[in-house]
């Protein structure tokens, strides 16, 4: 699949995301939008063995959404991949829906309940160790938030991954520089991420998470035989793809009104038309 085709999928997912969050009247749309390109690349280019007809296929790669409050991005990606039917996704925010505000294993294609920040990487480390013990080739991918880096449990997991040389583990930090309380460097400074994780023994790579070309190039360049766990620092824009949301902290958990929804959809549809 070409990078342009992947970008088109991401834009269609972006439109669907805006509409779904609008109708649900809830969602963490800013962080959803910042990680959506990476999530699209993971599910349509990087991860192997994914089968909507057999979600628990033994040889599948595993994905853990540690920043579980951005589950809406995962839902639209799973729908595009065939794991979720549109009529199910349309129930988001409704009583009795299997779709919660964080990932749960009731949903086909979701591996673990997640969203308690700081826990996802520990789960991913356990999965990667299990694959190593069973002599299996599948990989584990964990997507974290940058505000989440204030959780101490992440660094315990980071040390364990280095100790066990988990080169079958890839962690991604969605580095959009904003969290619910404001700029990450004002709340709990985490720069420089690269030096910090390199000191923990990780293979650290910088990536432009707003650009599909760079996302694909970066994932394709990972050396899964180097004896080190891998960290991708994905530089992104909060609210990416909707101009009035980009870089605005209030959209961490903002709810669109009808006028804003229409404006966002129109903007995205223009890009979809150009790509098609």
Q: Which features characterize this protein?
A:
globular, 276 residues, five-stranded parallel beta sheet, two-stranded antiparallel ribbon
Quick structural overview:
This protein is an alpha/beta fold and 276 residues long.
The percentage of residues in β strands lies in 5-15%
Cα Rg: 18 Å
Mean of residue pLDDT values: 96
* Poorly predicted parts: none
Number of helical segments with 4 or more residues: 10
Largest sheet: 5 strands, parallel
Description of the structure:
This protein is α/β, with parallel strands linked by helices. Helices cover 43% and strands 12% of the residues. Helix 2 packs across helix 9 (212-220) and helix 5 runs parallel beside helix 6 (153-163). The two termini are 14 Å apart.
List the helices and strands and how they pair.
Blueprint: H1 3-24, H2 29-46, E1 62-65, H3 71-81, H4 86-89, H5 120-133, E2 140-145, H6 153-163, E3 169-175, E4 178-179, E5 182-183, H7 184-187, H8 193-199, E6 203-208, H9 212-220, E7 230-235, H10 258-275
């Amino acid at each position: 699949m070409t990078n342009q085709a992947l970008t088109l999928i991401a834009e269609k997912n972006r439109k669907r995301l805006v509409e779904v969050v609008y109708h649900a009247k809830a969602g963490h749309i800013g962080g959803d939008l910042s990680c959506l390109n990476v999530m699209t690349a993971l599910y349509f280019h990087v991860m192997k063995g994914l089968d909507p007809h057999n979600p628990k296929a033994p040889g599948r790669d595993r994905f853990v959404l540690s920043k579980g409050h951005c589950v809406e991005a995962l839902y639209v990606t799973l729908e595009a991949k065939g794991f979720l039917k549109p009529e199910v996704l349309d129930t988001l925010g409704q009583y009795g829906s299997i779709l919660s505000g964080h990932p749960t294993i009731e949903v086909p294609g979701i591996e673990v309940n997640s969203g308690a920040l700081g826990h996802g990487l520990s789960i991913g480390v356990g999965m990667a160790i299990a694959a190593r013990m069973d002599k299996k080739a599948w990989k584990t991918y964990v997507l974290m938030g940058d505000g989440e880096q204030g959780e101490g449990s992440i660094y315990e997991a980071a040390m364990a991954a280095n100790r066990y040389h988990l080169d079958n583990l890839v962690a991604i930090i969605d580095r959009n520089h904003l969290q619910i309380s404001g700029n990450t460097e004002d709340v709990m400074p985490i720069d420089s991420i690269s030096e910090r994780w390199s000191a923990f023994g990780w293979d650290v790579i910088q990536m432009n998470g707003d650009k599909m070309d760079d996302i694909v190039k970066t994932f394709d360049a990972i050396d899964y035989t180097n004896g080190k766990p891998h960290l991708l620092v994905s530089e992104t824009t909060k609210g990416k793809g909707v101009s009035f949301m980009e870089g605005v902290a209030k959209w961490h958990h903002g709810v669109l009104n009808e006028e804003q929804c229409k404006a966002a959809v129109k903007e995205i549809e223009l890009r979809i038309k150009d790509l098609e």
